Every structure is written in structure tokens, then in C-alpha cells.
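Support reply, case 0932

Customer input (verbatim):
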Amino acid sequence: MPTIVEKILSRASGAAAVRAGDYLTCSVDLAMVHDSSGPRRLAPKLAELGMR
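Our regenerated output:
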């Protein structure tokens, strides 16, 4: 029986099923950082990629 994390990653990656140790490429709906410098560090990279 898959865990909730495996179900979420399966849906985000489009894979039929995932297991621990799998390498995935997933779409990201929301990203969060716990470091106050995160937004300052990520903003230039996101701008390079054409994201906001």
C-alpha cells in the first residue's frame, strides 16, 4: 500500500506508481523555504527562467 507521500509524488510526476529510491521529475505547485535569505537567492534564478 503506497504512503501519502508516494501518492502525491506519483500524481505530480505522472508515474503510475513510485517507491522509495525512485528518481522523479515532478511539477511543483508551491515551493517554500525556511531560510530568510531564500527569496533573495531564488528571485534571480526564477527571473532567468521567466517565472515570478
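We compared this against your earlier run and they match. Two observations from our side: Residues 4-48 form one domain. The chain has a mean pLDDT of 89. Please reopen the case if you see a mismatch on your end.
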